[in-house]
Write a structure and sequence with these properties.
about 260 residues, mainly alpha, 4 domains, 12 helices, about 50% helix
């Protein structure tokens, strides 16, 4: 127990520059550690009902729901939509016309309306893969990355200043993270690389390492707190951003427990 890495923390923490803990508090803490270890037992047991929680189950293809009109569904997702609609007694509408279809796809993928010329080209394109060609063109557009980067920027709590403080702190190079993100999406960067670079680009041994460093804005553009006692708030924010954004869970309770 005396060799536990948890014991030195209450005494001092040079790296985080936490104010030195009073001696009486250290004594109380150390007296509670052995009792807490005994109470916890040799192993931590997770109840069965928690182990079966849906979010922690392996990904699997569930059986498709039964539907009456099997010819309507084009993809497996359509079966779920149709099953609920049939249960509610709702009838299917006809397929969208080509003008409506290209408007929907263009707004969805790049956030902008199609030009009149693009609409006319698609309307008069009789090839069977005409719509697939439209989608490929939109995915290759630089506006695709601009459109979808906005969603990830919310996850990364992106901002180019700290307007919430009395003395706003500006991030003059904050745009570099935004531009890296747009470039990554337009280049269809693999998801594992997308995450690794944002978490540890400075630790990756790659030839183009300097080009990857702006990805660290995922952490660096968060709030900065002034004063030694507030440094832990800064670390807590980064941990919370990482776990909420990537795991869909929060470990904020670990700050006190």
């Amino acid at each position: 127990m005396e060799t536990s890495c948890a014991l030195p923390e209450p005494r001092s923490n040079v790296m985080l520059r936490v104010p030195r803990t009073p001696a009486w508090m250290v004594v109380v803490f150390l007296s509670l550690v052995p009792a807490a270890a005994i109470a916890a037992g040799p192993e931590s047991h997770i109840p069965d009902h928690k182990q079966t929680f849906w979010a922690f189950q392996p990904i699997a293809d569930p059986p498709l729901p039964r539907v009456k009109d099997k010819s309507w569904s084009k993809t497996s997702l359509d079966f779920y939509v149709l099953a609920r609609r049939e249960a509610a007694g709702l009838k299917s509408v006809g397929p969208a016309d080509k003008r409506t279809l290209i408007r929907r796809a263009t707004f969805d993928l790049i956030g902008l309306p199609p030009t009149p010329e693009e609409v006319e080209v698609f309307v008069h394109d009789s090839r069977p893969d005409a719509f697939a060609r439209v989608v490929d063109r939109l995915l290759a557009s630089p506006h695709y990355g601009e459109r979808w980067a906005r969603h990830w920027l919310d996850v990364a709590r992106y901002g180019e200043d700290q307007a919430h403080t009395f003395e706003a702190r500006h991030y003059p190079n904050g745009f570099r993270y935004r531009d890296w993100l747009i470039k990554a999406l337009n280049a269809d960067m693999p998801y594992d690389c997308f995450l690794k670079e944002q978490i540890a680009a400075d630790l990756l041994d790659e030839p183009d390492r300097l080009e990857r460093l702006p990805a660290l804005g995922f952490f660096a553009l968060g709030p900065v707190y002034y004063g030694d006692a507030k440094k832990l708030d800064q670390m807590d924010d980064r941990i919370d951003t990482l776990t909420r954004g990537l795991l869909g869970l929060t470990v904020a309770c670990a700050r006190c427990h």
